[in-house]
Amino acid sequence: MKHSTFSKDIILILAASFFYFSSPMLVTPLITGFSGTVGASADLMGIVGGMMNLCALFCRPIVGNLADRISKYNLSFIGAALMTLACLGYILSSNPVTIVIARIINGVGYACCSVCMSTWMSNMLPKERIGSGMGIYGMMNALGMAVAPAIGVKMYQIFGYRLSFGMALVFSVATIVIIQFISDKGEPIKITASKDADHRIQIVDKKVIPVALIIMLFAIPYCATQSFLVNYVETRNLTVSVSLFFPVYAMILLVLRLALKNLFDKRPFHFFLIICSISAFLGIVFLGNMKNNGMLVLAAAFMAGGYGIMCSVCQSTAILLAGEGKRGLANSTYYIGLDLGMTLGPMLGGILFGNIELKWFYPVLLICVPLGIVVYILGTLYKKKS
Predict the structure, then answer these.
(1) Which pTM does this prediction carry?
(2) Do residues 373 and 245 lie in contact, with contact meaning Cβ atoms separated by under 8 Å?
(3) Which residues have CB under 8 Å from 202's CB, separation 6+?
């Protein structure tokens, strides 16, 4: 069933997506510190911090196939229920082992919700409105990314860790409640043509792999910045307010996605790739030459115009490349690329931070930008040959 961009069901999915995304985003800045308070070593604290995304990475191919075969409502309900169970685990944890188990459960639930919600929404949109519709969907993730960590840190400062995790539980329960009121339950689309009726389990959608690699390359510099910006500023003795970066990034991203929402359906992928590559390039250059808060704000703005916009463009492109009936697999392939970027970014950042002069930290990360263009060119040439 196709809906208008702002039908009741789509508004409810947007609200549910805000709450499912906010739940783990609230936990993320707190979980490593909390695991340390119950006896985790420094190494285990790092493992706890990355466990959810690592688990989600391995779950996505399975969830992507399931999302094309069963009701999106059922799978989203399971995902939100698992996230609720994980939050209970955090609240009741008294040792690192239970936290690791809760992180694994959270990763499975997050994989279910992230793939299913986006697929559910895309199936409701007319083909000519997928770009703008998924741009609005991405805005809810950006809003969650801006609001939830701030709520979590503030609650921790006032009430401590466990009550903060209680708010994450409220968010996941809100997801369960909201999806009860969605009329279109996201039943799988029937593909009648025999040549398309492929029931084999697929790990990724081959057509989407170049898009997944491109978003991975855009994510690496951003996620390295996310993990090491504080250390980078402190080590270089820069007089800038690091706390400005992520709120400015989120606000600029919200404005850009609203301003560009109609262009998402009118301009080709390579148009956005060029513009976003230039923007990401400038963002990394400003980070590498940062001297004051003005340069920090400009860096955040250009990173929003680069990585932030490219997230929406790559996701909507993946959905269109796959076609109806395979959008779950397309979304999971896109998220595999995103998860790889979110994993490799901090890892590469750690290697650079510990082994090279810091003045080369961002110039090395800058290599990711032209590599994204190279991937696009190679993917285009391969498509023409085949």
Answers:
(1) 0.77
(2) no
(3) 61, 64, 65, 329
